[in-house]
Write the structure tokens for this entry.
Amino acid sequence: MNTLTRRRFLQITGLSTLGAATGLAGCSESRNATDASISASASSGGTPSGDATSKPSTSAAPAASSGTSLVLVFSRAGENYGVGTVEVGNTMVLARMIAEKTGADLFEIERAEPYPDAYDACCDEAVDEKNSGARPELAEMPNLSGYDTVYLGFPCWWGDMPMPVYTAIEALDWGGKTICPFNTHAGSGEAGMFATVARKCAGATVTSGLTMSGTTAQNDRNTAESQIDNWLASLS
Ligand SMILES: Cc1cc2nc3c(=O)[nH]c(=O)nc-3n(C[C@H](O)[C@H](O)[C@H](O)COP(=O)(O)O)c2cc1C
């Protein structure tokens, strides 16, 4: 039996209908998210600050904007919360903007067996994976050779990163890399995921992250772009 069922997720996040996500609480913690606010204070490996961003790692590090950068992203198209059925996932919208603005390459983390297009079915599979600590096989493993800076993006799934992101980051050598994390969500903010990235990616320096609601990323491209611009400027 699942320890965290879809029904439970809907109860604690308020996602029982595809309606407003205001004040939505995440699966692992309750928070009101403010899109893309950049926290100046570090919270090393701990609970993220209330403005939905955190700077979980060691020292401030500049983000490269040359050809040595990679956008590494997990995102899912199909039916999703608050945006209907989309051809490009919310996090991918941001990933493409970041790649275009920085000149970075882009690699998509994809589960070998794609997730269902239907939102409920995807939620069911995702929570099973989370509860079992699955590390699903990927369609292709990313390769970080030659990259100094990695913009690592993912949605919040059940208050955590999707399990394929773990498959990828646990298999990679992060020594000497700079990770600039970003995520989208439906109310949970970054839910401590940036600190998890810092913990999992030994040897990397993790910068301040960008957190944005999925509906903003998908439906308000001007706001999304300006928040990305502010974030990238804060890194350089
Ligand atoms: C399986 C699943 C679980 C989710 N869990 C959460 C959650 O715990 N908290 C939250 O705020 N949003 C949650 N969401 C909503 C997504 O984080 C949000 O829609 C995000 O923008 C999706 O990004 P994508 O289109 O790049 O996949 C969940 C969505 C799915 C499909």
About this structure: The chain is about 30% helix and 15% strand.
